[in-house]
Write a structure and sequence with these properties.
The protein is of the alpha+beta class and about 800 residues long. Helices cover about 25% and strands about 25% of the residues.
Length: about 800
């Protein structure tokens, strides 16, 4: 919400300077986000009147003007050379006198006006555009002033440029502060300064014509007011004072009728709509839209409607989106002769979120979805009518006011003792009553209690806590004591078998990964291509069109980070993220932190790209591969021992990816990016990615102390020939699966495959050499005990895997 300070002070003028007023508003919950002067500093710019304008003798685009500057042109009109196309006799424009300091340019230095010559003709000053005074970006011609502007007067006074723009960052519950009068009402309550409420005089009807209005949806519209105004001049010019105020509220001038409607919205918070009466067929109908209907809006877009959207229609088709935007067909134009002025109360729930469905937002929708005062529709139409008649002329008709379903204001009780406890101040009932009185709230008193009936303009007063907030807001947050809160605190102690996410972050960072944080909503393409998910969970109100679905894995997010770094010439990228993914799960129940039908597991994802290690002298350069990242995962899960089972994944290389299992349960995946996605996402080479359940990584089994073995281990090596399809895990499982309990460990130390078939090893075979550790903690092992065990291992390998000893 942006507005000029001078407009606010017309309604309420407390004895505070600008900075103190801004601090007061901020401390009352209406945060002042920015204070900005209406115009930058400049001097010696006055109102000048062009009394003569002739063609420059040596330049086609220049004119030599004689300008009356009042007391500043004692020797007669000043001669000024000007190139503006609208420089003509009779207009009043800003005149920068010789010696004037105009606003600073791009170099930061003010621009000084000096006596000069243009093509041989002296110029005693400069006629200014709005852009040269830094009032706007308009520079097509001179800034034309009102004809009643006093010649020679300081332009800063004439245009009220010594003013400040307030920009408020309002929370959704402060709908009553979305207008200048509403903010003034708050300032009056906070300071005790008098509130000036202008009397809105009714405009007496000059004809008896009414437009029939039919309200078919009382759950959409609770009150509908309107009147006809005939014989108006739509080409009338909006007064300068209104244009200036609208521009200082961030609203550009459009036409007189539109400007009047917008002005009253900023003045009293009342959005309204003005129809071209002659384009309305028979009557207006307020109803919910029907599926299949469409409407071309004032912004030029055409929207498809359904039963969830409220509309205003005539006898044949839809003409307006209720509470949001009017339709193009009944919009006023230069040919309009008669209008219908409408102001209604639209239920907030019937408007909320509708404009976002069509990917735009309006000032009207912003206000109606938060709640607009239903009690003053007639008064505000009288105000709009008054301005129309003053500016555009016309004949007003009788008021038509239909009240069908107004909101009920339920009383809310404030317990003084509870308010004092929550706020932390020893407040009295008299102090609480004074706050309610200053806010204009009706209330009744009983010992220790105030029962407040919220006024029509306060939609946010519904429970006791709302009233407690009002008490401290008006009483003053600066009066709160600096005491520490008193509350029972019980520490949440983890078991020794768990580690926290902070510890987990440090563990992943210790593996040379840097943490990144990404949105949980991603592009739909990522889900389809990188997760194989054709039915992702959609975001109803995405912050950007591409970020339209919730991610079911982290691959897309990590690749996005990689591409961001590659675009900035990074050659080695190792990143990780701890975050949630979102999947459909019919078995998931509803709960305080869960949504029925949706699973939201916490995952740890990582990506490694580029060289395996930083550039150094101790080892040669090589690209990171599957086994580097596999080692990082084993280090994170240690002392747990995961299994890596070859498995496909939509995002990963089919021959270089694996499912990660722990105790027989799948906990994640790891692998190299699929070549087609490396090409599709324009990556120079393929990164290696992993994703693991955070719960598995936060498990930390307790260390079990073991005595130093009293007996020495015996070591035996065997080399077996197996088919290429035999995996390392299958081989090791058979080796250690010994009933004697004497096999303590086994490690593969050699793999051999001849370059050409021949000898003992066939075309699709290879030799695997395994070193086996055997130990008996109670007695020394002998060959007589070891040989049968080794023979048994070889026999199991032959029966299970078709292995044979290498000769």
């Amino acid at each position: 919400m942006q507005f000029p300070e001078s407009w606010l002070r017309e309604f309420c003028n407390p004895p505070l300077n600008t900075e103190a007023l801004a601090e007061l508003l901020t401390m009352s919950g209406m945060e002042v986000e920015e204070l900005k002067p209406v115009a930058p500093p400049f001097t010696r710019v006055v109102v000048g009147e062009i009394v003569e304008a002739v063609q420059h003798p040596d330049a086609d685009r220049l004119r030599v003007c004689k300008v009356n500057a009042g007391e500043h042109s004692k020797g007669g009109p000043l001669q000024i050379v000007c190139g503006a196309p609208n420089a003509r006799v009779g207009i009043k424009v800003p005149l920068a006198l010789v010696g004037a300091q105009l606003p600073a340019g791009e170099d930061g230095q003010p621009f000084e006006i000096k006596l000069g010559k243009l093509r041989g003709v002296e110029s005693h000053g400069m006629l200014c555009s709005a852009r040269e005074l830094k009032l706007s970006d308009e520079h097509a011609g001179l800034l034309e002033l009102d004809s009643d502007a006093s010649v020679g007067a300081d332009i800063r006074h004439v245009l009220s440029l010594d003013d400040t723009l307030f920009t408020l960052k309002l929370t959704p519950n402060l709908a009553h502060a979305l207008c200048v009068y509403g903010i003034a009402r708050e300032v009056a309550a906070l300071t005790g300064a008098p509130l000036h409420t202008p009397a809105i005089q009714p405009v007496w009807p000059q004809h008896d014509r009414k437009l029939p209005v039919q309200i078919e949806a009382p759950d959409l519209c609770g009150r509908f007011s309107g009147r006809i105004v005939r014989n108006i001049n739509t080409q009338a010019k909006t007064p300068r004072w209104m244009v200036d105020r609208l521009e200082r509220c961030g609203q550009r001038s459009v036409s007189a009728l539109v400007d009047i409607s917008n002005y009253v919205m900023f003045e009293y918070g009342r959005p309204s709509h003005i129809f071209d009466l002659d384009k309305i067929r028979d009557k207006l109908i307020v109803r919910w839209a029907k599926k299949g209907e469409s409407l071309k809006l004032l912004n030029g877009s055409t929207v498809e409607l359904d039963e969830q959207v409220g509309v205003i229609a005539d006898a044949q088709e839809v003409e307006s989106l209720a509470g949001i935007m009017g339709g193009d067909r009944t919009a006023v134009s230069d040919d309009t002769k008669s209008v219908y002025v409408e102001a209604a109360f639209w239920w907030p729930d019937a408007v909320a979120g509708r404009s976002r469905r069509f990917n735009f937002a309006t000032d009207a929708g912003h206000r109606f979805e938060r709640g607009v005062d239903p009690a003053l529709t007639v008064e505000h139409i009288e105000r709009i009518t008054q301005l129309i008649v003053e500016i555009c002329g016309g004949e007003a008709g009788p008021m038509d006011d239909q009240q069908v379903n107004l909101p009920e204001r339920k009383p809310v009780t404030l317990r003084v003792e509870r308010a004092a406890k929550v706020i932390g101040l020893p407040l009295t009932q008299a102090q609480c009553a004074d706050v309610m009185r200053r806010l204009g709230l009706q209330f009744s008193e009983a010992p220790g209690r105030l029962t407040v009936t919220p006024p029509s303009w306060r939609f946010d007063l519904q429970i006791e806590e709302d009233l407690i907030e009002e008490v401290i807001r008006v009483h003053g947050y600066d009066k709160l004591p600096g005491d520490a809160p008193l509350a029972p605190i019980s520490a949440r102690v983890r078991t020794e078998e768990q580690r926290g996410l902070h510890t987990l972050r440090r563990a992943v960072a210790a593996q040379d990964y840097q943490e990144t944080i990404n949105f949980s909503f991603v592009e739909e393409r990522w889900e389809r291509e990188l997760a194989g998910n054709d039915d992702p969970i959609r975001v109803l109100n995405p912050i950007a069109a591409p970020l339209s679905v919730m991610r079911s894995n982290m691959v897309g997010s990590l690749l996005h980070v990689l591409r961001y770094n590659l675009a900035r010439r990074a050659s080695r990228v190792r990143v990780f993220e701890i975050g949630r993914v979102f999947r459909r799960s019919p078995q998931s129940p509803d709960g305080p932190t869960a949504v029925a039908g949706l699973e939201q597991p916490l995952r740890v994802g990582g990506l490694a790209y580029g060289d395996a290690a930083q550039l150094q002298w101790g080892q040669p350069e090589r690209r990171v591969d599957f086994f580097d990242v596999k080692g990082d995962i084993e280090a994170l899960l240690a002392p747990l021992q995961p299994r890596f089972v070859a498995a496909p994944h939509p995002a990963l290389h089919p021959g270089r990816s694996a499912r990660i299992e722990l105790d027989g349960q799948a906990i994640g995946f790891v692998g190299e990016l699929h070549p087609k996605w490396r090409q599709g996402y324009e990556l120079p080479s393929a990164p290696v990615l992993f994703e693991i359940d955070a719960d598995a990584l936060t498990r930390r089994p307790l260390t079990q102390a073991q005595p130093i073995p009293r007996q020495q281990s015996a070591w035996r090596d065997i080399a077996v020939i197996v088919g290429e399809q035999v995996t390392h895990d299958a081989l090791m499982a058979e080796v250690v699966n010994d009933a004697s309990g004497l096999v303590k460990s086994a490690r593969l130390f050699d793999l051999y495959k001849p370059s050409a078939p021949g000898g003992d090893i066939g075309a699709h075979e290879r030799s695997l050499a395994v070193r086996i550790e055997l130990r008996d903690d109670d007695a020394t092992l002998t060959d007589e005990r070891i040989d049968p065990i080794i023979a048994g291992i070889v026999d199991r390998l032959h029966r299970s895997l078709g292995a044979r000893l290498r000769g």
